């Protein structure tokens, strides 16, 4: 099978190496700063995609109107990418978005989003949770054992992170807006809280970890957070913290985006590869 891999971070480099190691033909473009001798670098987008039915884009696929390419020698615009697409190509992308879908459709290509696969998002959440633990251990002046930590949000990342922190001896509160989620939080042996009513909890914390991609820590909440408290935001853009207010108040905030690619690129690459294989198997069995 022939693949083209365009743009991305180290997890996409590892993905390309894994595909090549599985015996597939892999050409890359926009990974110049991270490529190894095992990858075949192409001189142009068209060259990379020539002969490949499947074109793989990173997670997230776009940064504004450009292909997400932190390892590329130059920026690759969405227009440049779609102009190089030939009819019949299948674009496999993470968090694809409407602009990419429409641009590919106009070229007679199809876009499938591998980040919509549950098997990938669960593995991604596990890597993110481990990365968050590493940051907390490095940045906090106290041990996790005995520390008081609030995890905002009870999605995949929130669940896994809260359980990891509790296993390390932290006193963990987990917040959610739904009463059904708060019931599960309590059933799992964690302290439940309402995400819409955090001001009573925040003053006694050593760390707050947000997983909700909406502003949940605004001026009112930040005003009661202790000076020694660390705010770790794991949410994708726009994040969950009012960053301007936090800066004005001197709150210690870390916005940790794309943690899997930083802390576990091999595992993250394997998870994307497995999701892509599952998509292709389903396509070719239809």
In helices, the fraction of residues equals 25-40%
Provide the structure class: alpha/beta
Sheet with most strands: 6 strands, parallel
Task: Please give the alpha-carbon distance between the first and last residues.
Answer: 18 Å
The gyration radius over C-alpha positions equals: 21 Å
Spatial strand order of the main sheet: 3-2-1-4-7-8
Superfamily (CATH H level) name of the largest domain: NAD(P)-binding Rossmann-like Domain
N-to-C order of helices and strands: EHEEHEEEHEHEHEHEHEEHEHEHH
Approximate strand percentage: 15-25%
Please name the CATH architecture of the largest domain. Answer: 3-Layer(aba) Sandwich
CATH topology of the largest domain: Rossmann fold
How many domains comprise the coordinates? 2
Taking pLDDT < 50 over at least 5 consecutive residues as the criterion, the unreliable ranges are: none
Describe the fold and architecture:
By secondary structure, this protein is an alpha/beta fold. It folds into two domains: 2-116 and 264-284, NAD(P)-binding Rossmann-like Domain (Rossmann fold, 3-Layer(aba) Sandwich), CATH 3.40.50; 121-255, NAD(P)-binding Rossmann-like Domain (Rossmann fold, 3-Layer(aba) Sandwich), CATH 3.40.50.720. It has eleven helices and 14 strands. The protein has a six-stranded parallel sheet, with helices on both faces. The protein starts with a strand and ends with a helix. The mean pLDDT is 95.
């Amino acid at each position: 099978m022939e693949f083209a891999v365009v743009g991305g971070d180290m997890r996409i480099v590892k993905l390309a190496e894994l595909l090549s190691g599985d015996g597939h033909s892999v050409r890359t473009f926009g990974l110049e700063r991270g490529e190894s001798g095992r990858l075949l670098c192409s001189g142009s987008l068209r060259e990379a995609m020539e002969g490949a039915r499947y074109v793989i884009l990173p997670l997230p696929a776009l940064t504004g109107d450009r292909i997400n390419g932190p390892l590329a020698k130059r920026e690759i615009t969405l227009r440049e990418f779609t102009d190089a697409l030939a009819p019949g190509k299948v674009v496999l992308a993470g968090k694809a978005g409407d602009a990419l879908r429409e641009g590919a459709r106009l070229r007679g290509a199809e876009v499938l989003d591998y980040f919509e696969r549950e098997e990938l998002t669960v593995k991604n959440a596990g890597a993110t949770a481990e990365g968050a633990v590493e940051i907390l251990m490095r940045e906090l002046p106290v041990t996790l054992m005995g520390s008081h930590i609030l995890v905002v949000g009870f999605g995949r990342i929130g669940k896994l992170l809260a359980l990891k922190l509790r296993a390390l001896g932290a006193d963990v509160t987990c917040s959610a807006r739904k009463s059904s989620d708060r019931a599960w939080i309590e059933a799992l042996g964690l302290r439940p809280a309402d995400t819409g009513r955090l001001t009573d909890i925040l003053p006694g914390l050593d760390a707050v970890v947000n997983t909700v991609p909406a502003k949940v820590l605004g001026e009112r909440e930040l005003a009661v957070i202790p000076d020694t408290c660390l705010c770790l935001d794991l949410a994708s853009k726009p994040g969950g913290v009012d960053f301007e207010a936090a800066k004005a108040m001197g709150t210690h905030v870390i916005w940790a985006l794309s943690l899997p690619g930083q802390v576990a690129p091999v595992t993250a690459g394997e998870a994307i590869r497995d999701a892509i294989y599952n998509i292709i198997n389903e396509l070719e069995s239809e």
